[in-house]
Amino acid sequence: MTAVRSLLFVAWLYLSMALFAVGLSPALLLPYRAAMWVIRGWSRFVLFGLRWIAGVKVEFRGLEHRPEGAALLAGKHQSMLDVIAPFAVLPDNCFIMKKELLPLPFFGWFAWKTGMIAVDRSAHSKALKEMVRQARTRHAQGRQILIFPEGTRAPVGAPPDYKPGIAALYRDLDSPCTPIATNSGVHWPAHGFRRYPGTVVYEFLPAIPSGLKRAEFMALLEERIEGASGSLLATPPKLRLKFGELKSIGHNISDSLASGVGLLIGHYEMDVFGEAKRSPEGFIEVDFLTGRTSGATPSAALKKAIAEYANSGLDEICMRHGTTRDVFTALTTRFAVDAVYGDHFKVTVRDHHDRSSTDSFVGHPGRLLPSRRQS
Q1: Helix residue ranges, H only, 174-213
Q2: 63 burial class (0-12, 13-18, 19+ CB within 10 angstroms)?
């Protein structure tokens, strides 16, 4: 049911972009505030569909800390939703975006018209100077400049990686900085089409005053954003699940890798069975807790995909079940090809209560082999 609702919402999202782009494109000929009105309307339209189609409610907290005039804001970035939702509550939002998004229909057109700050990230220091120059202009116009300090969407649980762009803006604008925490990636993940019912929270935190030294500012910003975002994620995990749930987690992550289409991690060209078949060993065994493999040596692309499953994919699946990877003491899968079963994989799961199982699956999606036929 979640998959069906998610697909319906994705259709709603892209249809809304087309409808607003065509139906309200005359706003592109008017002053930028008319185009901003269109974007704010589209944002609320998307949030409406997200709630009533996908079952995801969006809640804004700490609005007493929301700036009204010229301001600098820095937000946690886990989801595409982080770009859409702020328009619903910020009066004159101006976010920093990748330059390659400008040619996109609707999104790019209205971003250009409303003076969003487009940055060519491949230009490095030149891009930083251009970003600061544009931000200075937008700040002088009384706008709220929103930047995502990590630069790109990161899966829930990924180590933070704050880039220097926010420090440059903070210094040059000599402005307080309002942090924004979120848990958006739990319900609208960084990769894949699925949306998971629940409540996304955006929390505006008290502004960090201007004038701090760079190192002090960066440390304080990361501490506040990561601390508050972590608190939004901190529903107590279930450390003892029904064993069937643990087996389901093991099957789901194994089936995702077996399919070759890793929506969970954003990799779409994996062929674990093909690589196993072409190898002398005839199999690849994956340890999803460590990312290590045995048997055939995987290609660089497959090795990278396996590492991402171990680093973030497993955490994301566990979070959906309300638990953490700590419930497992073993989670391994052997992918193999033979003349009897063709493509097949064997999943071994063990937990801290010494419960364990090994189940075999044929094909992809994997069909469970009855116990009497399992080897």
Answers
A1: 184-187
A2: exposed
| Token pair for 342 | 């063709």
Domains identified in the chain and CATH numbers: 2-233 (3.40.1130), 243-373 (no CATH)
Structure tokens at 55: 């079952």
Max CA pair span of the chain: 73
Q: pLDDT tens digits for 176-191? A: 999 999 999 988 988 8
Query: pLDDT digit string (tens) for 338-354?
Result: 888 899 999 999 987 77
Instruction: Name residues whose C-beta falls within 8 Å of residue 370's C-beta, 6 or more positions apart in sequence.
Output: none
Average pLDDT over every residue of 270-281: 90
Residue 23 has pLDDT above 80, yes or no: no
DSSP-derived 3-state class of residue 310:
helix
Nearest to 357 by CA among 367, 372, 345, 347: 347
DSSP three-state, residue 175: coil
Structure token digits, residue 316:
């994301």
Q: Check if the beta carbon of residue 52 is closer than 8 Å to that of residue 125.
A: no
Q: What is the pTM of this model?
A: 0.65
Residue 219 three-state SS: helix
